[in-house]
From TrEMBL:
InterPro entries: AAA+_ATPase (IPR003593), ABC_transporter-like_ATP-bd (IPR003439), ABC_transporter-like_CS (IPR017871), P-loop_NTPase (IPR027417). The lineage of its organism: Bacteria, Bacillati, Actinomycetota, Actinomycetes, Kitasatosporales. It comes from Streptomyces hoynatensis. This is ABC transporter ATP-binding protein. Keywords: ATP-binding, Nucleotide-binding, Transport. GO terms for molecular function: ATP binding; ATP hydrolysis activity.
Length: 303
């Protein structure tokens, strides 16, 4: 679907993308993550043939990056907020874009329906909410029935309802056997829609692979609050006797579980505490999220 090999972009002395080698399988929703300035937009622009790589190579839909004209008609993109005509309706905007792009204008009602704007297509673009504008931008990107969709921060500035609509839309689009590459800083949002992750830092690849495997790289933890503060030390000893290491964190203990089954470990610790006459006010399993694992990774801790 998409590969890059040593893809590099330098602007003067600054390296924006630094020897990026990665692969994106067909049919996935891939989250593209990295700190501000990591090179996500530059990478997307190179994939779309908008920015010429300084070095390296790659393929999109089986065609070389050095000939974007051979594949761009099969790729849809939303890079910055869509710049459409405010005084035209959503429907009219798409008709103009279809004609300009050489696409069939009869697809307009279908793409409006896909993005959930079927009943607002007759309203002027200028009256749309930000979320509706973003979705119309995606409708425009869908006019050419793309096999790959590239979305740069499509949830930027959206309110929670707008984000939820965007999430549903991305899932719907992927269900139609289309690959989606979507960048965002909202990791909780990405976690809900992505099955693949590409993480870059300072232009270099930090992780590429299934989303599920990334979040489980750092194991779950048990969090234990004794009913009596004074029991904290004894509780730590009880936990240690079960072969687990307890770390004291203020008024509670944190127990990294590594490879151990979290629920089994919780039950074991619960029983051991009860047998020692210790009452637990709270016993909780904290499972790693995309965000917690990512933050650990960029802060340099072993994930
Ligand atoms: N046209 C340009 N000329 C010079 N430097 C640029 C240009 N475009 C990007 N850069 C630089 O390249 C680096 C990567 O920028 P890029 O926009 O690709 O990062 P990003 O990961 O998309 O960041 P953000 O999350 O903030 O959008 C940054 O240091 C940026 O300043």
């Amino acid at each position: 679907m998409l590969t890059t090999h040593n893809l590099t972009k330098r602007y003067g002395g600054r390296t924006a993308v630094d020897g990026l080698t990665m692969e994106l399988p067909r049919g996935v929703v891939a989250g593209f993550i990295g700190p501000n300035g990591a090179g996500k937009t530059t990478t997307m622009a190179m994939l779309l043939g908008l920015v010429r790589p300084t070095a390296g190579e790659g393929t999109v839909l089986g065609r070389s990056l050095s000939h974007p004209e051979r594949y761009v008609s099969r790729v849809g993109a939303l890079l910055e907020g869509p710049a459409l005509w405010p005084s035209l309706t959503g429907h009219e905007n798409l008709q103009v874009l279809a004609r300009l792009g050489g696409h069939d204008p009869r697809r307009v009602p279908e793409v409006l329906r896909l993005v959930g704007l079927a009943d607002r297509g007759g309203d002027r673009f200028g009256t749309y909410s930000l979320g509706m504008k973003q979705r119309l931008g995606i409708a425009a990107a869908l006019l050419g029935e793309p096999e790959l969709l590239i979305l740069d921060e499509p949830t930027n500035g959206l309110d929670p309802a707008g984000m939820s609509d965007m999430r549903d839309l991305i899932s719907r689009l992927a269900a139609e056997d289309r690959s989606v590459l979507v960048s965002s800083h909202l990791l909780g949002e990405l976690e809900q829609v992505c099955d693949w992750l590409l993480i870059i830092e300072q232009g270099r690849l930090a992780y590429a692979g299934p989303a599920g495997e990334f979040a489980t790289r750092s194991g779950a933890e048990l969090v234990l609050f004794p009913a009596e503060q004074a029991d904290l030390e004894r509780l730590a000893t009880v936990v240690a006797n079960e072969g687990l290491a307890a770390e004291r964190a203020g008024d509670h203990l944190v127990v990294p579980l590594g490879e151990r089954d979290p629920r089994l470990a919780a039950a074991t610790v619960n029983r051991a505490a009860a047998n020692a006459g210790l009452l637990l006010a709270e016993l909780r399993i904290d499972r790693p999220t995309l965000e917690s694992t990512y933050l650990r990774m960029i802060e340099g801790e072993p994930a």
